[in-house]
Write a structure and sequence with these properties.
The protein is of the alpha/beta class. The chain contains 14 helices and 15 strands.
């Protein structure tokens, strides 16, 4: 077994997959949205514009995520967090209320479910009401650092996280930390005080935490890792909490956004009501967006396996940048360069996907993504296949389709891993049907084959399907 697979198996085996409102969901299906919670230090454009940018993009994808909460909280530029800054989130939600009438046309949605139904599960393709999103916007921790965790640090946000974990729902809850994750750390502390060790473990198993670097501190002291509550989470719960500490995707998102700002100015800003509140960058563009791109249900990756490359990068379980604790991260070589290369590869498609949605927000018309169908299977989860050395495998994506009737093009490729040097040759990788032969002597190898599909409509939108080939 390859190293990346062994590490993933060791860490993931210790994590429970962890979501309904009333009736228990025995088997989650791709028809349901992934659950996410955002912790944001959103603020004025002259201080913290990128969180507002990311908030616009998030709500442009409100049909793809079950937004369980948007918690305003501390970050690098705001300790304590000024409560009045939450108005900038309100501005985005108000703009969404206007644009959602056009966005709903993308999936032929005629109306909203009642608010009680919205509070339960949501299917992929469903656009929630602005009232629902407002009901899930709340204040979190106003102060940063491990030093404030304790009896006087509870907040509506930390209390709500505990309520979410207690819901009878098997889907995991992805915490997207655009600022500090102090609100979550406080919820962990509270559960630790009031429940048993086993109940605490069950609570932690419900969550997955993706942090955009470590912002549970002021920027000027960002190398003082011990100050942050994140280090406590990593040190005390390395195998009970899946924690991704990204040091690649967010940097590329910032820099690529800056170098492509003319496209944002022409294709994002001013498009619909949300485009009108999308601010110009200060430090970088949408540095927090990879936290939810990582969970994007587009067929490219299973976020519960951080080694799988997605629009939010790829990560491996190992020593974190504090060189004391462990997390899923990508700060070291060679993974740093590998993740960086993929992030550059995906960036044009990731931006075009966003721009196409902002066109829908603006006009109520636009392009749809193609749908990948591989070997008769239309699914967003990876396809798992067992193979033997010397065996020839065939894959057929010719049944893939596009709702707009656009012409499709195909590209098949293998994800590169740090410890893998060779991969099976793909016959005709740019055709809808491909074949490959499993090399002799490859026993125990695991190959990740990606089917990438583009349409020829506006913005040339994409679809993906991952095939995981385990050699016996």
């Amino acid at each position: 077994m390859k190293t990346h697979t062994l590490l993933a198996s060791m860490a993931l085996a210790l994590l429970a997959v962890g979501t309904s409102c009333s009736d228990k969901i025995e088997n989650s299906t791709p028809a349901l949205k992934p659950r996410i919670v955002v912790m944001t230090d959103i603020g004025p454009a002259e201080v913290e514009p990128d969180d507002k940018e990311s908030a616009v993009r998030l709500l442009a994808y409100a049909d793809r995520f079950e937004i369980e909460a948007i918690i305003t909280s501390i970050g690098w530029n705001c300790d304590p967090y000024p409560e009045e800054w939450s108005v900038y989130l309100t501005q985005v939600i108000d703009a969404y209320q206007t644009d959602v009438q056009n966005l709903m046309k993308r999936s032929n949605q005629q109306d909203f479910n009642n608010i009680d139904e919205e509070q339960c599960t949501q299917e992929l393709g469903y656009w929630p009401s602005a009232d629902y999103i407002r009901s899930r916007a709340m204040m979190g921790s106003k102060r940063a650092g491990i030093g404030v965790i304790g009896a006087d640090n509870d907040s509506p946000g930390s209390d709500f996280l505990i309520r979410l974990a207690d819901e009878d729902d098997d889907r995991p809850i992805w915490l997207c930390s655009w600022g500090g994750a102090n609100t979550f750390a406080q919820a962990v502390w509270r559960v630790k005080q009031e429940r048993s060790a086993e109940e605490l473990k069950e609570f932690l198993n419900k969550f997955r935490l993706y942090t955009i670097t470590d912002q549970d501190m002021q920027y000027s002291m960002r190398m003082n890792r011990a100050y942050s509550s994140h280090q406590w989470l990593r040190r005390d719960y390395p195998f009970d909490l899946l924690m991704v500490w990204d040091e690649s995707a967010w940097l590329n998102q910032n820099e690529l956004g800056k170098s492509n700002w003319d496209k944002y100015a022409s294709q994002i800003q001013g498009k619909g009501a949300m485009g009108k509140v999308y601010p110009k960058f200060l430090w970088g563009v949408e540095g927090d967006t990879p936290s939810f791109l990582n969970v994007m249900p587009n067929g490219l990756n299973n976020p519960d396996d951080p080694t799988q490359i997605g629009w939010g990068g790829c990560h491996e379980f190992g020593i974190s940048p504090d060189e004391e604790t462990y997390a899923w991260t990508n700060w070291q070589q060679p993974l740093k360069d590998i993740s960086n290369a993929y992030e550059h590869k995906f960036y044009p498609d990731e931006f075009n996907d966003f721009a196409a949605r902002m066109q829908w927000a603006d006009t109520g018309e636009g392009n749809h993504n193609p749908v990948a169908v591989v070997n008769g299977s239309q699914d967003l989860r990876p396809m798992n296949i067992s193979a033997k050395p010397g065996q020839t495998l065939k894959f057929d994506a010719s049944k893939s389709f596009d709702a707009d009737g656009d012409k499709l093009s195909f590209n098949w490729w293998f994800q590169e891993f740090p410890d893998e040097t060779s991969y099976p040759a793909i016959g005709n990788p740019e055709s809808s049907k491909v074949s490959l032969s499993i090399p002799e002597g490859s026993n125990g190898n695991i190959y990740h084959l990606i089917c990438e599909i583009h349409d020829d409509g506006p913005f040339s939108l994409t679809a993906y399907r991952r095939v995981v080939i385990s050699v016996e």
